[in-house]
Input
Amino acid sequence: MIRALRPAVLATLTVLVLLVLSPFALVAVNAVKSPDEYGTDGPLSLPNGLYLKGIADFWIRVDFGEKLVNSFVIAFAVAVLAVAVSVLNAYALGIGRVRGRSAFLVFFLLANLLPQEALVYPLYYMSKEVGLYNTRLAVVIVFTAIQSAFGTYLLTSVFTTFPREMLEAAAIDGAGKLRTLWRVVVPISRPSLSVLFTFFFIWTWNEFFLPLVFLISNDKQTVPVALGVLQGDRMMDATTTSASALLGILPAILFFLVFQRTLSRGVMSGAIK
Amino acid sequence: MRLLDLPLNFRRRHAPAATANNTAPRRAPAGTANETGPHHAPAATANNTPPRRAPAGTANETASRTPAGSVAAQTAVPQRTRTATTSRAASRRARTATASNTAPRRARADKAGSRARAGAVAALAALSLVLAGCGADSDDGAGGGDGKTLRLWHYESATSAMGIAWTEAIKQFEASHPGVKVQFEPKGFEQIRQSANMILNSDEAPDLMEYNKGNASAGLLSKQGLLTDLTEEAGKRGWDKIGPSLQTTSKYDAEGIMGGGKWYGVPNYAEYVMVYYNKDLFAKHNVRVPTTLAEFEAAMDTFVKAGVTPLSVGGAEYPAQQILYELALAKANRSFVDNFQLYKGKVDFKGPELTYAATTFADWVKKGYIDKNSAGIKAEGMGVAFTQGKFPMVVSGSWWYGRFVSEAKFEWSTFLFPGNTLHPGSGGNIWVVPKNAKNASLAYDFIDITMKPEIQNLLGNSGGVPVLADPGAITDPKSKELIDNFDKVTSTDGLAFYPDWPAPGYYDVLVAGVQHLINGTKSPEAVLDEIAKPYDDNLASLGK
Output
């Protein structure tokens, strides 16, 4: 019975995979098509040859290398800082059992639930007041707060199940609070932390709205913001837009492939005792 | 500190057991901050995303006068003065804190961090220093009012008519202003649309930028006091020589409503809606260029009989509503336009103009002039279908011109919507000088150069519609035709703006209404009721 079902399942999965991949395929196909060809054959035709000028033009026009550096610096800094902040918060809330910790957690969760549009004006004023408007540092601070709110929420639930015996053993060995954190809690929860790191990095990398508002000068902009440059008032350049979309998703895919092992390890960790 | 090695080696052995039972870090399900924001979805950008033309009221722009918009409006005005000093001081501080070489610091810090808990703190501190380094150059971009830099932003692509003309203008500006550097940054339309009021309210404002015309954009900023009043310069430098309907979108009243008395912007190009036609298909089906509405319908009948749908229409975006508006204008005069667009009098949605428009539009769908499937087509799809030669005609704006020139591989030409003296169209987006511009006089000089015949002629010869060109100097035959038609329109004061301008969010109302007409899901009367309500609500909120 099960054997008989196998081809059907396989076929369904193939169709689903194709559905998921089709937008990417469309982007890839149009990225290497010349505008002429796009105009005469439309978006669905296969390109006659490799036309890489669209990609090259886009790269030069927005100085894509610079955008990559900006995105990387911001995403990496946020990932590191947000993980650090999350660990400290979660240590207090999950292991330290601070009074009123569920209230704290709800508060942290709020930061995640609020739409960014609602945050924009207050953040804008604060950053302007302290002279950080139009700086990457402002974006890093904002996202560190937003991401670590989620990180705190998640890690706290991880830490509440942390074996008490181990903490007691550390205490008996004479470790203080900080040393317990650094030498016991962090090493043991490293898989969770690296998953958080990866997700923070990718999430921050893909952020569009706040960087769009906060990073005004072109030399400070991130990759997703740079992609928006091509969208004109009423005209779009379909082939160059595709080229830029392709360039825009490649880094995130690369990063994911590099950290894929970490991810699957982190997700599985603790699944079997 | 005491760094004696305590028996902590158990950490390796026990490592896997501890961490969390489950929870693969998944984003909290309901509307987390990150997911609700307008994320940039690469896949989506490939095929659609509306090139939105509407100056009035796209969802995010909520116009000045609605309650929702006025929150933003009020919060955006105050405290323009204080920030300049504080932010510069702060960034100076940040810079001194950074020290010159941040990289070695970070490397060192990383090593230290893994050694001990104190190291961790050090690593964090070092990282934040690195980041301060990122932030420190915040005022590099500002020219600082030294009269040596003109910071210029616009969002036209480099290959468009405006892009070509303005690149030349930059060259001429630098030649005529020795020692002055133009610091040009190509911007995204979306960024300017989303955050113009925030940028202009800070000391990051450029000296000159292209901005969207209309009540909800330039009008709103002028009302908030973020734009420089250009009335005096316009008179002195002769920018007010452009036609009266072009001036409408440059001048705003105290409420930020266009058609007012003060110049806040200067249009450098214009746009209007016309009919593009495929000459090859016209010849093949033996159809001649129509000059009256009756001839136009007869021509479309010929195509329908031959099994060809005559009009390529994008029902999901602006094109369909512009056809509806063309039909209303066929029966309208200037006072209808003034009433509808500038609120000078009452608009009767059941009056002859709009009734004719809606019934005729429905009729055109019934007769097969407009495909029943076009309700879901976007503007981009409409244009590409025309360049593929699938349709003999498309009714749309001059913004397609350059694109058709380069992409259509057949003979094509244009004519004005037959029989109309009024046509959708207006001055293009405008140059504005922010109130916080540090080099406003350079900005005026630059605007002046773009208004010079040379630059205007270049704009015209590159496929744009100039506002002050010398018709004799337009040598490109295709461009000449485009500009001659435009002159025909302006000579009778025939620019009627766009149907979605009068109320915030009206664009979507019209898209929905026209889609009902295309799908046949509502009668023309019901559609007129549907589009009348938001219009009247807006008037009521304006107190008119």
Remarks:
- The longest strand of chain B covers residues 269-278.
- The radius of gyration of chain B is 28 Å.
- Residues 99-139 of chain B form one domain.
- The first helix of chain B runs from residue 10 to 18.
